[in-house]
Amino acid sequence: MKTKTAILTNFFILIFLFNLHGAFAQNIDVKNKAKNATTNKVDKKVDETIDKGLDKIEKGIGGLFKKKEKSNKEERNEENRKSQKQDVEEQEYSFTAYNKFDFIPGEKILAFDDFKQDNPGDLPAKWNSTGTAEIAKISGSEFNWVQFSGGEAYFSPQYISKMPDNFTVDFDMIINYSKVEYAYYQLKFGIEIISSATAKAQNENANVSANTGITFNITPFPYKEIYAVSYIKGETQLETKAQFEGLSSPKPIHVSLMRQQQRIKIYFNNKKVYDLPQGLPIAQNYYLRFSTLIDEWNDKQNMAKMYISNLRYAAGKPDMRNKLLTDGKLVTRGILFDPGSAVIKPESAGVLKEIAGILNDNKTLRVKIVGHTDSDGDNAKNQLLSEQRAMAIKSILVEQYGVNEDYMTAEGKGETQPVDVNTSAAGKANNRRVEFIKI
């Protein structure tokens, strides 16, 4: 028996040696194979890092950049099967970053623009421009963007005029200046609230209107600076500077601006950049305007551009506590989701924190959370989506803000109870809402 075993063992050893000899006889370069294996391993690691980074961007603004296509179908399926636990963990990380964010949008949406109704390459239908503004598409984005360029120029949405004493404006912004090479070139972008949408700058260096208002001049290169100038009929009343490190990156920034009488607050992502109690002088009317100040060389070389999308303009100062406790029903459009999903955007943190404070101060208060959608898409899918969104809100209130789960229920109504038309972007935005009903 031992002899037979030994014979079999020797036989397999001979086969192995024969195959090894054949491999070398075919001139297989073992050194290069090892090198390639190492390279492939590094490439795979880089791919994973890029994918993770793009995932975070997608969470922030609903999928701005398209991820690289996987070469293997099974890997794509595996990505699609990410667990709910992982999604919640990423969401919690985002909300942690926004723990001091207190922006609450106005009660009534007056205008909403994601530029889906405009054709790429055209000037947005409801905008005026003294420079080059056109609709641009970004791969993987659910919406279109308006691209600003053209040296010294001004861009005004005509549906935002005669702004009330209490209003909010928020939008997604990308500033692309990655090819700019020289620090001494002029490069500014502006967010302005002014008394005349057609006013020209008196001084291109100051970029200040001849009328009354406030301008937030953004200088991404090289200072990463936001320079606020408040002025009355062109005369400067206040100047102040702040920095935002995120300007050094081409990643999208969510900008939130709030007016309460003369008080102006502006946030970039989760950071309150300015809170100016007397920042906006008294004037009869105010308009929103964007501006660019790009030197001739960089403009000709197509080196610097500003992109805007998901612009939401709302009026009113929300009194959420009184609405829920006294009226018995609180309606909010400030809890935002990634398109077609139940993933809550982190800029919803201000609203959620306010609602959680009301519920935690009134621990026996029972509420029903009701989700609503617009009419885009399939009815059954909208019903399911509204239910999932209501449940996601309940989960966040429990897990992030310590609200008692036993005193909340969640349900969805889909598109069945519109409060506005579904034929305009603003109407659809008003229909995408969440109700907290006292029970």
Short descriptors:
Jelly Rolls; 439 residues; seven-stranded antiparallel beta sheet; OmpA-like_sf; 2 domains; 60s Ribosomal Protein L30, Chain: A; 9 helices; alpha+beta; globular; Bact_OuterMem_StrucFunc; eight-stranded antiparallel beta sheet; 21 strands
Explain this structure.
- This is OmpA family protein.
- Residues 1-25 form the signal peptide.
- It is found in: Cell outer membrane.
- Residues 71-88 have a biased composition (Basic and acidic residues).
- The structure is a single chain.
- This protein is 31% helix and 30% strand.
- The chain is of the alpha+beta class and 439 residues long.
- The chain folds into two domains: 105-315, Jelly Rolls; 320-438, 60s Ribosomal Protein L30, Chain: A (2-Layer Sandwich), CATH 3.30.1330.60.
- The strands form four sheets. Strands 1, 3, 4, 6, 13, 14, 15 and 17 form an eight-stranded antiparallel β-sheet that branches. Strands 2-5-16-7-10-11-12 form a seven-stranded antiparallel β-sheet. Strands 18-21-19-20 form a four-stranded mixed β-sheet.
- The longest helix is centred in the first third of the chain and has 32 residues, at 30-61.
- The N and C termini lie far apart (84 Å).
